Amino acid sequence: MVTDTQPELTPEQLAEIERKFDPEMAFRATGKQFGFFIAAVLVCMSVYHFYASGFGLIRELLHRGIHLSFVLGLVFLLFGWKRDDSLTPRTGGLRIQGVPVLDIIFSILAVGAAIYLPLLPPEVVAERVGNPSQSDVLMGTALLVLTLEATRRSVGPTLPIIGILFLVFAYFGPWMPGALKHGGASWLGIVNHLYMTNQGLYGVAIGVMAQYVFLFILFGVLATRIGLGQLFIDLAMVIAGRYSGGPAKVAIFSSAFMGTISGSSIANTVTTGALTIPAMKRVGYPPHFAAATEATASTGGQITPPILGAAAFIMVEYLEIPLRDVLAAALFPALLHYFGIFIMVHLEAKKLGLRGLRAEELPKVGLVLKDHWLSIIPLGILVYLILSGRTPDFAAVYGIIACVVVGFLNPTNRLTIPDLWSVLASGAKSTLAVGAAAATVGIVVGVVTLTGVGFRLGYVVVQTATDIGDVVGSIWPLSYFSVAQWALFFSLILIAFACIIMGAGIPTTATYIILVAVAAPALAQLQVEPIVSHFFVFYYGVLADITPPVALAAYAAAGIAGSNPFQTGNTAFRLGIAKALVPFVFVYSPALLLVADGFTWWAFTYTLAGAMLGIASLGVAFSGFLVAPLKNWERWYVGLVAFLFIAPGVTTMLIGLAALAPIVVLQLRRKSVAA
Q: What are the φ and ψ backbone dihedral angles of 80, each rounded to 5 degrees?
């Protein structure tokens, strides 16, 4: 049995792990005076967004411009030229309290370029669209360059490279191959479209960040500060801690709860993993398995209502449906993700003979509720307002107000004025990287709308999948399925791989927005409903956080557990296999999303039951254990049978159950012999 000899990590060490594995949190250390100035700007950013969304009447372009100027200006002050500059502060050179003068100049230029156009009178902007002045082109060019650089510093090089490739594609259109060939655009035309209209830098992506996402991130930080995160962890321990392998189940429940207020996989991993990973190791889980369990459960935060990272609000804008419909659609796929992890950790615990937590290791439910019950009120208010049909920003504003009121009243986690200042600053700081990424995504989406490349790429995807389907469909017995069915299947495979590859090192929301520009047209040609195609792309974008070689959440958990990062990533992917299968389930049976066209309770019931049986069967196959160890051929057999449950229809479910019956009988006999 493995025991935990590693000392518990301090909050400072946990923060360092988060900074190391999450590029979005690798902030530069500054001098005290300059640090106070930056904190003041961050607080102003939070206050401005709270006022603008709750009480202000600020025109759309100006609001987006102010948000973008805050984001870019602060990124250049808080993120170094290299990531090592943030993790290991450098000395020397021309600096002001640790910040290079050149970065201060970049910050000022970024603020000026971002706010220049929005400050112009609307009628002047309208006159210049299509015929920008020299100053417009200069400012637009500067903003494009500074946005790409800010994104590189705060997110990494992958997304800016994609942005540059799209700009090159727009300019050199006549020289592109095949279906990608287009008329091309001059630099003036590119700047006009990306800077002067609402199709680029000031488009939907940055608009959603400014209007909704900022407030929800701030709400999550405030809710955690007033004790809601601790309440979730304690309740998870009360619910699941005493059972076999209890700490792993605590990790699942606590991450599911934390997912309601946190849309960050890595932040969720560090927050709950500081407690659950050492506890898992103490009861006997191998370090890599403990880390993988926490990482996989924590990635569920991005698919768990009501936050869903930023994707929920992007869907609201793109699909033009209420937020409550998006949250309803997300509910059961998220539960299936946690169900899949639960099955695997339970079987692993049974296989290893692991204990649960002892009574003295568990919190007392009465004390937990007495100390933290007030902290649940803001979340209740937020969810109630969303479900009652209020706009997301309205719900977030009153959720934030409730957090502040509860914080000042709650004697256990009393909020003071200095605490509020710190929370407002840290909340704004948490939005900078995703804000810069959204601006770069605006460049990509702008090029897509300028050139029509989304439909061109969609055509290429469908045509490639159809060609593969022609070949596969000619093979007996695979010819039982039509070419159209094979085309849909292989289109989903191609899009899934593209999402995982693009998601390596790119924020989930950015991956989702870019890929949906390609996937939505492709899947629309195959008669897939828009909300289904959006969720399919979103789920596979999230999967990148636990998919090697760039499994950032898994690597952060490995840093806490002291395990091999790559082994942890591989195990995390295995534990998160449900997240890879569930999107195929709701494509073939959209009833799982509750709000899709043609929904019936009967279709939903057999789809959910089939998905649960399929996920459980895969858990048995991967774990190699049911009630007794499975032989290798039995594992392969059960794994293949699992796909029968995922296929829609009652008939396939019954065939799957009949196919599993012999394995269940063998397992029961094996257990009785062993007993």
A: -80, 170
Chain-centroid distance of CA 21 in Å reads 15
- Of residues 317 and 71, more confidence is placed in 71
CB atoms within 10 A of CB 211: 22
Shared-domain flag, residues 38 and 148: yes
Question: pLDDT tier at 87 (50, 70, 90 boundaries)?
Answer: low
The residue count of the chain comes to 675
Split into its structural domains, the chain has a count of 3
The token duo for 471 is 């070949």
Determine, yes or no, domain membership for 317.
no
Helices (H), 172-264: 187-191, 204-208, 214-225, 228-240, 246-258
User: Per the domain annotation, does 405 fall within a domain?
Assistant: yes
Q: Which tokens go with 399?
A: 């959720």
- Report d(CA 183, CA 174) in Å as an integer: 5
Q: Is residue 649 part of a domain?
A: yes
Q: Decide if pLDDT at 5 tops 60.
A: no
| Residue ranges making up the domain that contains 112 | 31-154
Q: Helix, strand, coil: what percent of the chain each, to 5?
A: 75, 0, 25
Within 8 A by CB and 6+ apart from 385, the residues are 394, 395, 398, 399
Q: Which residues, including other chains, have CB under 8 Å from residue 192's CB and lie 6 or more apart?
A: 129, 130, 131, 132, 136, 140
The yes-or-no verdict on residue 4 having pLDDT over 50 is: no
Distances (CA, A) of 276 to 288, 359, 546, 565, 612: 13, 16, 18, 18, 26
